[in-house]
Amino acid sequence: MFDYKGKVALVTGASGGIGKQYAKELASRGSDVILVARSKEKLEALAAELSSTYRIRTYSLPTDLSKANSVASLAQQIVDLNLNVDILINNAGFGTHGRFETISNDEEQEMINLNISTIVGMTHQFLPYMQQQRSGIIVNVASLSSFQPIPYMATYAATKAFVLSFSESLFAENRHLGVRVLALCPGTTKTEFFDVIGTQNMPGGINGTPESVVKAGFKGIDKKQSYIIDGVKNYWIAQASRFMPRKFTAIMGERVTRPANIQIPASTVKQ
After folding, report:
1. Catalytic residue, candidates 4, 22, 152, 156
2. Mean pLDDT over all residues of the chain?
3. Domain 8-268 falls in which CATH fold?
4. Where are the domains of the chain?
């Protein structure tokens, strides 16, 4: 079992949802917590709550990690605080929803930067120290969509497929160096995510909670897994895609996730 007491944990996207729950759980286990997100007010309120409740040190570092040079700037702030990161929770990210051509390229590029480039940059910054200490944890928040294409969320699903592959590779590289790397793959979860992308009508409903997702994350680390999926139902959904032709998976996915306002021409329905 990993001893969290006295460790320094960095949580991105910490102002709400899964990130906020991760910060609370780490603080309850005795870790000092560096909180990172865009909202200064939310971070400062959470920092005050955690330090008061759990008697640990908290650091609020408001940062927009989708911006150029933000990772290097954040890393320098942590150096200036004379801190080293033992636990890294790469949770910051967002999604887009709709027909690909209707989503602005700028928004898609910002999402790619945050969901992929930021995770790579954060790992470059903080993994070497963990390797030197021969101890550490990196949790990259992926998604159930890492395992199959998601029409109308095409770019988002592709970024999360990257996160899964990247994390599994780093897991293998670091398994003998004392650093545990995990891709945490939630299904639909009750957070602000679906408010941001503009839909609450997901197939099967929105059933997961930040608490269940974070609990799965700690379980995956304890068992030294390379990835973990939140929920038994979600696990079998992910595994089913391995046994079906990729074309069939994509077409069925399009039928299931198609927004109500999108009409398919009758001449193409059977294609």
Report:
1. 156
2. 89
3. Rossmann fold (3.40.50)
4. 8-268
